[in-house]
Design a protein that fits this description.
- It is a single chain.
- The chain is built from 14 helices and three strands.
- It is mainly alpha-helical.
- It has two domains: 3-89, Tyrosine recombinase, N-terminal domain (DNA polymerase, domain 1), CATH 1.10.150; 115-252, Orthogonal Bundle (hpI Integrase, Chain A), CATH 1.10.443.
- The chain has a three-stranded antiparallel beta sheet, with no helix packed on it.
- A hairpin with a 4-residue loop joins strand 1 (159-160) and strand 2 (165-169).
- Helix 6 runs antiparallel to helix 8 (182-198).
- The protein is elongated and about 80 Å long.
- The termini are far apart.
Length: 303
């Protein structure tokens, strides 16, 4: 059976037997028509002509053309379903799309605020109870690069003011101790005074409280940060991960110490930090050439 005919019959099967929605059916049609164009260029005329190498060639060609990882995963899924049907009706002996993985999409990371934007974000805190709390939250996020859940689960006794340190519980219930900056400590002291006046007998150990005297939820923290950013006139919505990312990016830009940033962020693998801070291998090479004794020697010899 010619390829075009087999695709048409497969789409009819999806519509009549599997009763897929028009939107889903349209997606299958679009992906398979792109595949038909590839097959025509390669001289494949029947489903049985196509092997695993042909599928890989198609995916790599699409990737080179700028198609993203998610779109390629969707196309592979459509091809697997199509060839499963061809195997069932006897048009193919096996499914050539099984076992082929699409390239992973790069992690989408929030844009870091510039140092100037951070200054604007943290400038002129309000003197109200809510203002002091929200200021302390924003300062702590940026000062110590905390995750949202890490900050939300903090208790008052987790802060060691004399040592300028705070102990947090991260992923996998792992604890780590990180420094707290001078401005964040100042904001925390002001907040704790207001907290005591507002909720003197709450008995709640949480560092950050709601107006009802209960631990502030992660959703409330997100909405308050967004509101703070709007009040301070920032051009984009602010959320906790953006402040964590800004912390990492600004620290790395000024120190180039990837290992230290890894420890501060609580990343298990250095590669996670590398992606997180947009550090590429060209930058690593510059650090290596600048720092490694034999790299420096090689540079001198080549001049």
């Amino acid at each position: 059976m010619p390829l075009a005919t087999s695709v048409s019959e497969f789409l009819d099967y999806l519509q009549s037997a599997r009763r897929l929605s028009p939107h889903t059916l349209s997606g299958y049609r679009r992906d398979l028509e792109q595949f038909l164009g590839f097959c025509d260029s390669q001289g494949f005329t029947r489903p049985g002509d196509i092997d695993m190498a042909a599928i890989r060639h198609f995916i790599s060609q699409r990737r080179a053309g700028g198609t993203g990882g998610r779109s390629l995963q969707r196309q592979l899924s459509a091809l697997r379903t199509y060839f499963n049907y061809q195997v069932r009706i006897g048009a193919c002996e096996n499914n050539p799309a099984v076992g082929i993985q699409a390239p992973k999409s790069p992690k989408r990371l929030p844009k870091a605020l510039s140092p100037e934007d951070m200054e604007q974000m943290l400038a002129s805190p309000e003197d109200s109870w809510l203002g002091l709390r929200d200021q302390a939250i924003a300062e702590l996020f940026y000062s110590s690069g905390l995750r949202l859940t890490e900050l939300a689960t903090l208790n008052t006794d987790d802060i060691r003011f004399q040592e300028a340190l705070i102990t947090v519980t991260g992923k996998g219930s792992k604890t780590r101790t990180v420094p707290v900056g001078r401005m964040a400590l100042k904001a925390l002291r002001q907040w704790l005074k207001a907290r005591h006046l507002h909720c003197p007998d709450s008995g709640e150990t949480a560092l950050f409280l709601s107006q009802r005297g209960q631990r502030l939820s992660t959703r409330s923290i997100q909405s308050r940060l967004k509101l703070l950013g709007q009040k301070q006139g920032l051009y984009q919505p602010v959320h906790p991960h953006m402040l964590r990312h800004s912390f990492a990016s600004h620290l790395l830009e000024s120190s180039s110490d990837l290992r230290a940033v890894q420890e501060l962020l609580g990343h298990a693998n250095l590669s996670t930090t590398q992606v997180y801070t947009h550090l590429d291998f060209q930058h690593l090479s510059k650090v290596y050439d600048k720092s490694h004794p034999r790299a420096a020697r090689r540079k001198k010899e080549s001049t």
